[in-house]
Specification:
single chain; 5 helices; elongated; CD3324 family protein; c-mor_Regulatory_Protein; YraL-like
Length: about 90
């Protein structure tokens, strides 16, 4: 999520109205219904983690033990188990 300067994107009258409620504070404006995005969708993080988890699962199936996977991916054994048993 990026921040935008209200002076650059909103009309002055609206800024004045908003300042009556929150003066100089940060304000989160949620997306419109139907425009929501899930976590990691924009940055690609979600897809990267799915790919990493597939690789971890494949390595486990071909004989790599949980401890080695945990060390290689800097994860706890519990996290490796969650990935494997998904």
């Amino acid at each position: 999520m990026g921040y935008k300067n209200a002076n650059q994107v909103l009309p002055e009258e609206l800024i004045t109205q908003l300042q009556e409620y929150i003066d100089g504070e940060y304000l989160y404006i949620p997306r419109k219904k139907g425009n929501e995005r899930s976590w990691g969708e924009k940055s690609g993080t979600k897809e990267e983690l799915l790919m990493r988890n597939k690789i971890i699962h494949q390595k486990y199936r071909t004989g790599t033990n949980k401890e080695t996977l945990a060390e290689e991916y800097h994860l706890s054994i519990k996290s490796i188990e969650r990935i494997i048993y998904q």
